[in-house]
Amino acid sequence: MWQIMREDLESIAIGAGILGTGGGGNPYLGKLTLLSLLEQGYQVEVIDLDTLADDALVTEVGTMGAPTVGIEKLPHGAEPRWAVEALEGYMGRPLDAILCAEIGGSNSIQPLVAGALTGKPVLDGDSMGRAFPELQMSTHCIAGVSPTPAVLVDEKNNRVLFSAITDPSTLERYARDLCVLMGCTAELAMGVMTGAQVKRSAVRHTLSLARRLGEGVRAARAAKEPMADAVLAVTGGSELFAGKLVDVQRRTVAGFARGELVVEGLGQYRRQWLQVAFQNENLVAWAGDDREQRGRVVCSVPDLICIVESETGEPITTEQLRYGLRVTVLGIPCSDKLRTPAALAVVGPAAFGYPEVHFVPMPKVAGVGIE
Length: 371
Known about the structure:
7-stranded antiparallel β-sheet, alpha+beta, 27% strand, 2 domains, CV3147-like fold
């Protein structure tokens, strides 16, 4: 068990922003929300999954919607508490703990806000080991755990309860349409799981990983050491590219930020180009010597394609992409839970509309990175 302190929050915001692979919402906004609560005297405790009783009840909390909207449409702040309370009202009993829906950007901090406002512990893990744009991509859904009951809440405290849905993809479609009607962003508390179910299917220790990752980046800044080395020392993986962002095609469609970016290589990557397609999160990266033609695939989902500012290591989410940024693009191995045939059918390249891309898993180092 450990308690979230201000220094932890600073590090988690950086680390989760990187692990979010461009999505999960702006970590800076989430950090400000929780920082305000900590200054008011609220507390957040993080506990290991193994301390949870098998019959305990848990829900995962996160924000659904387009991250581009989240920049301008600020939340009320109490949405995570409202969502948990709505589920408890339906169940007729309190929930015992809260889990991150994804360890990405602001969505790694929303469950901490829920923990602070409800007094419930937050589990050291999440449901993806990264961020994904659609809820059926949760490791719990892939493992067959029901995503309902679920609650969608907007900033006015309008609540929509899904008591039963035939499958997670159907819930994604229904909830996404309602999310668009709510202004393209809403809080989602999804599923009431037992402790035994969470222990089997959650990706473990990702909050701790985000904290260590942020600490490594902050230490590298202070020592003026290479940012890529600091990130990869904690996560494993490799540097894919470095250069200047020269083009971003981005649009908000059906509750997602979709588009593609182009990076012109600098240094050892001079005269080369990198293209990355994204849907809230970065999906596929192609490198080659022709800006107008996609080159070879250097990384694809479910492995993580993470874009950081080259000098500071600050994560760059898809809504922050803009011309002229000097960026380093990193590839990080995903959780083994996302590499099974069942998982790849839901989170592999073909699931995002790239059937021609064959997923080649990045090598992992034992004891390093995402479990």
